[in-house]
Fold:
Amino acid sequence: MNTQLNRFATLIWLALVILTIGTFLIGEEVSTGKTVMLSVLAIALIKGQLIANYFMGLRHVSWLWRGIILGYFVVVGGMIAIAYLN
Amino acid sequence: MNTNTALVNDTEDLPGDFAIWIFILAEMLVFGVMFIVYAFARSNQIEVFNASQLTLSRAMGTLNTIILITSSYFVVRAVSAIKSGNSRQSAHWLLATIFLGGMFVAVKLWEFSQKYSAGITLETNDFYMFYLTLTFFHLMHVLMGMIILACIVYKLKNGDYSAQEHFGVETGASFWHMVDLLWIVLFPLIYIIR
Structure:
């Protein structure tokens, strides 16, 4: 069972690396723009969820804790987006 | 005794000590406020922030992100190993994590030295003030995490943890993941979005 969990963790790590390289390429290829900003923030939210749920193990605990982490990314990311859209 | 049982009695307990989760939330709140303050400060000086941000190495920022993500993965493997009762393997994964933490510190110090050589300080402009403060504050958390993990390795080598009792390993792991989680926001905010 542990082997399966380790394989799954490896897949999550791979997804995180791909998303990070995606963020880097967006930064290199595209200079500015609302879509770029929102895309990069959305990627950060996805990465945050992957780390919280699968690396920190929150997918096994009460929804309250998952909600707090998701809420954090939504609120902080949302406020950043509002500041950039101003 | 785990004090969070009442909160999550229908599912599994939070990994590690409940107190570390309160600490994690407090740290995330502090960083969250600083991220938002940065974003609104930028909206008043967009050209200064954009021009200064372009002097940062996005490649080095990306490298450090991959280093931290990989170190978090190693921590997952360390927890998995101790849950299987393999304390030796768990210690090895944590030593690899500490090594990656050292790499992160080295890259960051290289970046700081580049800026220092260019005459950039906290007083150069608001962007650099935020860049230096936020990344230095985060760096302190990386160093703290390395110390915590080193203590856990010491205890693993002493045979203090087992498949049944590995609360301390999970507590240290949760702290390290938080360091990664904060960087996940810090990296695009400071290095990418403009």
User: Anything to note?
Assistant: The longest helix of chain B spans residues 126-157.
